[in-house]
Amino acid sequence: MLPIELSCHPSTPTRIVRSVVASAQLVAHDLTLSFRLAGDFERIRIPRPTESRVKVGLWEHTCFEAFVRRDGSTAYHEINLSPSGEWAVFSFLRYREIVALPEDLAPPIISTTQQEKRLQLEARIDLSRLAEEYRTAGLRLALAAVIEDVDGSLSYWAVQHAPGKPDFHHADAFALQIPGS
């Protein structure tokens, strides 16, 4: 999938971010995500690198997100990826109705590089460990980012925003389609 520029939600304008660009590619059952953030890194709060581990609440700080569902389904998964290397995955039966994840969940492989005015995060996720039907079904994706200013304010970025307040879980946010095999 070609890189797509995310747009800032109109209710959370910011001057510290020049652009957020994302892409997704599915090969077999591996989803590869790429996020590129450009802006004023003296003002953008980037979590410090740490060990790869599960951490809830990543969306309260700078992080990148992907929401994945099988085409035509209400069930979906939320994947949170922090520049720190921390991550979280959540499973939903339908809009914001959370359910348990499989116990043998494989951690995503995350790599982050930062230069003076650009941060790049790449991640690879084994989708077949989340849901077997992800192996062959057509998928709908919502790609998003939360960017934190050093003053603590957050801006919300997405391929497509739902009406109203920022809500990456909303069905309208699942704007990208990956055909099944």
Features:
single chain; 181 residues; mainly beta; Immunoglobulin-like; 5-stranded antiparallel sheet; globular
Brief summary of the model shown:
This protein has 181 residues and is mainly β.
CATH topology: Immunoglobulin-like
Q: Give the overall form.
A: globular
Taken as a percent bin, the fraction of beta residues is over 45%
Kindly, what is the distance between the CA atoms of the first and last residues, rounded to a whole number of angstroms?
A: 15 Å
Find the count of extended strands (DSSP E, 2+ residues): 13
Q: Specify the CATH architecture.
A: Sandwich
* Mean pLDDT score: 94
Secondary structure category: mainly beta
Detail the topology: elements first, then pairings:
Elements: E1 4-5, E2 7-8, E3 17-27, E4 30-39, E5 63-70, E6 76-81, E7 87-94, E8 97-99, E9 109-114, E10 118-126, E11 139-148, E12 154-158, E13 176-178
Antiparallel strand pairs: 1-3, 2-12, 3-4, 4-10, 5-6, 5-11, 6-7, 7-8, 9-10, 11-12, 11-13
Written description of the protein model:
The protein has 181 residues and is mainly beta. Helix content is 0%, strand content 46%. The strands form two sheets. Strands 2, 5, 6, 7, 8, 11, 12 and 13 form an eight-stranded antiparallel beta sheet that branches. It is globular, with a radius of gyration of 15 Å.
